[in-house]
Amino acid sequence: MIETPAPLDRTAAFRATMGRLASGVSVITTRAGSDRIGMTASAVSALSLDPLQLIVCISNHLYTRTAIAEHGRFAVNVLGHDGEELARHFAASKPDKFAGVETHEDHGVPVLKDAIATVVCDVSAALPGGDHTIFVGDARHFEHKTQGRPLVYFAGGFGGHAS
Question: Rounded to an integer, what distance in angstroms lies between the CA atom of residue 90 and that of residue 93?
Answer without folding.
Answer: 8
